[in-house]
Amino acid sequence: MSHTAQITSHRKPRRSASKTALRAGVAGGVLSSIAVAGAAGPANAEPVTEKTIEMPTLTAGLADSVAQSAAATQQVASVLELRAQEDAAATKAAETAKTAKAKAEAIRKAEAEKKREEAAAKAAAKAKAAKEAAAEKATYSTQSASSSSSSSSGSTTAKTASYTSTATGSAGALIAFARAQVGDAYVMGSTGPNAWDCSGLVQAAYKQIGVDLPRVSQDQSTAGTQVSLSNLQPGDILYWGSAGSAYHTAIYVGGGEFVGAQNPGTGVVEKSLDWDPPTGAVRVL
User: Fold this and answer.
1) Which residue among 183, 234, 242, 249 is least packed, with the fewest CB closer than 10 Å?
2) How far, in Å, are 100, 101, 113 from residue 106 at the CA level?
3) 161-283 CATH, one of 3.60.15.10, 3.90.1720.10, 1.20.1560.10, 3.90.150.10
4) pLDDT per residue over 187-232, tens digit each?
């Protein structure tokens, strides 16, 4: 091949500027025509926005559902709160009833215990009175037998009272009452007006001056201030036995003499202290 032969080039030949401009103008015209045709479409075409009209309806329905749900929730909450209040009230009522029942039971037990104590006290007092009565009866029986024996042997120092009391006031009044009963019978448990036991006569004598004494000898022996037998005054209560457990009482009338309901054999007598020496004395006036 000749060195001067023409070699075919692989490069595309350049288009001329006029052809390029022509093609660009054609393309622009086509695009403009399409745009104009789209803008000038049919006048009776359906609007695109017609499909969005249902949105407000959907939104209103959802709001109603939410409102109904809120109302139902509120109603349930109200029911639960009311039920809680009812339960609390029922619990409080049960506790109140339980407390009232316990209180009533405590009162019942206290009353029953009080009745038992009262019954026991009455039984003890009755037993005490019976014991004292038995002791007095035994003592008086012994004294009666002793007095009869002494009288028959001529060794008795008993005498008929000859002392004239000079006591006045309350002491004089109770002594006058006691002396007025001399000669009455002795009957266990009697309080006059024609028969007496020892403590019944003493109690009645003091009652004349407005002083209430215990009924039995044991209590009368501690009803006042203990005094010595060497320092007696008219109206003092004499007792035989121990203070608090005495089995016999009488009234000191002065001049070394006393008045007392001694025993069934002698009745109410006025005697000297050496006829039946007492154990002690108490002063009430």
Assistant:
1) 183
2) 10, 9, 10
3) 3.90.1720.10
4) 999 999 999 999 999 999 999 999 999 999 999 999 999 999 999 9
- Distances in Å between the Cα of 203 and the Cα atoms of 32, 176, 206, 232, 257 are 151, 14, 5, 19, 19
What is residue 60's three-state secondary structure?
Answer: helix
113: CB partners within 8 A, 6+ apart? none
**276-to-34, 179, 184, 202 alpha-carbon distances in Å:** 164, 18, 19, 17
The residue type of 33 is S
Are 238 and 227 spatial neighbours (Cβ–Cβ below 8 Å)? Answer: no
- How far apart are alpha carbons 129 and 250 in whole angstroms? 18
Domains of the chain, by residue range, sit at 161-283
- Taking only the tens place, the pLDDT of each residue in 273-282 is 999 999 999 9
Q: Which residues of 88-124 are buried (b: 16+ CB within 10 A; e: fewer)?
A: eeeeeeeeeeeeeeeeeeeeeeeeeeeeeeeeeeeee
pTM of the shown model: 0.47
206's tokens: 């003091």
Query: pLDDT digit string (tens) for 34-90?
Result: 444 444 444 445 554 555 555 555 456 677 777 777 888 888 888 888 888 888 888
Question: How far is residue 153's CA from residue 130's CA, in Å, rounded to a whole number?
Answer: 35
Q: Measure the CA–CA gap between 263 and 276, rounded to whole angstroms.
A: 12
Residues 176, 42: Cα–Cα separation, whole Å: 155
